[in-house]
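Quick start: read one record
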Amino acid sequence: MTDSVLNVVLGLVASAISAGLGWLAQALRRRRKVERVRAFFGLPAGGECLIVVNRHASAPSSRSVARSDVYALMELAALVKECGARAELVAHDEVRQGLGDKGEFCIGGPSSNERTAAHLASWLPGVEYAPSPDGRVPVLTVGGTEFRHEDENEPGGGHSFALLARLHPTAGDRPTFLVAGQTAIANHAAVRHLVTDHRKLARRHTEGGSFVLVLKVVNPKAYGPDVVELAADVTADALRRTAAAAATA
């Protein structure tokens, strides 16, 4: 074998080794990325989770689901599939199990989701959804601070709020994610924020910890669920029982 041929062969071998190492490094990075997502959401490969479906607040049928909530469910289903887990869709009034055994995504405010009402009462005593003066969209109150919906016909297109919480009451349990918007489109916006920004959330909050955020959905008539701002991190106030709640307990 001449030196020139030997150099070509060695070059090809070196290129193959380099390409193989590059592929292996990329595969390991992808695997670590997926494992971090699985850990944050409590969705191990082959595991199961619950997606608790709320009802359409204004529909006559208890089995009706708002279109925006359907979109939110679709995005959650895609996330679960990406993690290699399996999702079970369950109506909000048919869940009879505690927290921690399975990952859970619970969608909708307490007026449209009995499971949400139970989570608020048990784990987030500082959160209240009260009827608004016009009886339409509830007022979200956390620790005495009110977050009021503004109608889309107002100047600027209005806004709505959603509570996004990660409940992890016992170390080692799989977390429950609660998405409780004032409107269906606020639910969808909060789910989209959770799915697209989960890496930022994981960095900001420890993997095993709880957090409670209020998200502001800006001008949903024009921007749909895409423009979301962090209105407040209300974790401490949400987990703390208010004086009024303590007096009635």
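The beta strands are 48-53, 86-91, 103-107, 127-130, 139-142, 145-147, 159-167, 176-181, 211-218, 228-233.
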